Every structure is written in C-alpha cells, then in structure tokens.
Amino acid sequence: MYRWIPRILMVALVLSASSFALADEKLRGTVRIDGSSTVFPISEAVAEEFSKNRDYARVRVTVGVSGTGGGFKKFTAGEIDINNASRPIKQNEIDRAKKNNLRYLELPIANDGLSVVINQANTWVDYLTTDELKKIWEPGSSVKTWADVRDGWPDKALRLYGPGTDSGTFDYFTETINGKSQASRADFTKSEDDNMLVKGVSGDKYALGFFGFAYFVENQDILKAVPIKEGSKDPVLPTVETINQGTYSPLSRPVFIYVNVEAAMRPEAKAFIRFYLENAGPLSKEAGYIPLLDSMYRKNKERFESDLLKLAKN
C-alpha cells in the first residue's frame, strides 16, 4: 500500500503543474495602458497585484504616463488597450475613435478630489475662494504676488505649478474654475509628472499648485492642502469624507479607465480588466483615492461583461 502513495502524489503534482501550464498557455501576451498621471497609481497597483498571480505570470502589463489627452491620442489610434483618464472623453476624441472604427467602454474606477496645495511654511493662506482661484489662473491674469490675491498677504512673487496641457486634471481644473477647458494663464511651471509639481511647491515658500488628492496624501508631511470656499459655503478641505460626500465642491470628480473593446476580447486583456474591476476598490484606497461603492463596482463588472458580449455580436 505504501508504494501507491508516492505515485498518487506524483500524479497530483503532474496534474497541478499541467493545470498551471494550461493557464499560462492560454494567458500570455501584453496589455498596454497609458494616459493620466492621476490614475497611474491605481493602474500600477492593479498591474503589480495581477502579476503576482501565477496564472497570469506570462502576461506583461505596461503602464505609461502621457496625460489623459496624450493617452486618448494613442487610445483612439488603437496604439494602447486601456486609457487612464481623469476626465470623460471629449467630443473630438469620440469623433477620432469613430473615424478609426474603434469601439470602447467607459468604466469609472474611483473618486478623486483635485487638491490645491501650498508650502508647509506658508502661514497666511487660511483658504481660497473659487473666485480667487479664477483670479490667479484665468487667461491674462494680472496676479503677480500674493498681495494681488488678497489684501494683507505678502507682497512676494506667487510662483505657480500645475499639470501640463495634455492632463485631464488640467482640463478639469480650467473648466471648473475658469469656465472653459484649457483656458489658463501660460506663465506657470508645467509637468505631466505630479512628483515634479510636489518637488516644486515643497521647495518654494511662495508657491501654489494643484494635482490629484493621492499625491497630496502621499506628501502631506511636506505640503499643505488649501480649504476651498465655493460661494457662500464654508471653506472645505479635501479629505476622504468630503470627497465621498461631495461636500468638497467643485473639485471632486470621478476617474476612469477606457477600454478598447477589440482588445478586451483577447483572453489576457479580458482577465486583466476583470481583475481590475474586482480589485479597484481596495487598491484605489491603498493608493490614496476614494473607492466607489461596492455596488458600483459590481454594476461596472456586470456592464463590462454584458456590453462586451453585445458588442462582440455586432
């Protein structure tokens, strides 16, 4: 009887190894992601967790950062499978996708609060109104110093930092604050890399900048977030609670991934997107974002499966 034990174990090991081999054989290839620097930390975290699963060991997931607009240029040209986006797709991008016969799905994955930040040594800014933000950032702004923003503030040069013009964060901020997407003064330090903006503001007492909430959370030991006052409301700081409740207004927003339908029909891409939607909640929270409700993630996954099935038939 004892002679059968090693054989049984050997059979079990062979079957187990075979099942993993079959899984690997089915799932191999590359999933290409690009786009928003704001959404990058979530997609990067999902890609890392996905790669830890031995069933997906032969699937390579690349995550680039070219800004929401830069990502949509690649996405609508069919160069990438998924675009990270910190704003909804624009009409000209929709038109480009149609021209290239590219079908896509829009999937919200988390909430974010665009954060206005100052240096830790700044002691005079207690809050900023949306009107003051507009005064600072509008095209043709005459604001040169902090004293130009509010009486009693230092007569020191105000140095500004913000995302580049391909950024969805830039689009959202300019549309919300200045009334038109891309409408902004031009004399500020631009970067698609939010870490460069953090470095700029944290190294300059008289600096002001803006970017996604996660980057503030990650650097709150060297930066301060500015409470924002909208109309007659009290000033509100960006926090998990205020962003989730919508009281951090008007700078709260959802963030998205856009999925190329044809790409999503590939087994490795489909597996990755399913994994993304199943794990976006906890991983977005770890990355400093505010997860959607569990019911919304379930609906997203159901919609992904049903829409993919419908579109595959057409």
Automatic annotation (TrEMBL):
Locate the PBP domain: which residues?
25-277
GO molecular function terms listed in the Swiss-Prot or TrEMBL record: phosphate ion binding
Question: Keywords assigned by UniProt?
Answer: Phosphate transport, Signal, Transport
Domain of life where this protein originates: Bacteria
GO biological process terms on file: phosphate ion transport
Extract the Gene3D superfamilies matched here.
Periplasmic binding protein-like II
Transmembrane segments annotated in the record for this chain: none
Give the signal peptide range: 1-23
Which protein family is named in the record?
Answer: Belongs to the PstS family.
Q: Relate the protein's function as given in its record.
A: Involved in the system for phosphate transport across the cytoplasmic membrane.
Task: Please report the name of this protein according to its UniProt entry.
Answer: Phosphate-binding protein
Q: Which species is this record about? A: Nitrospina gracilis (strain 3/211)
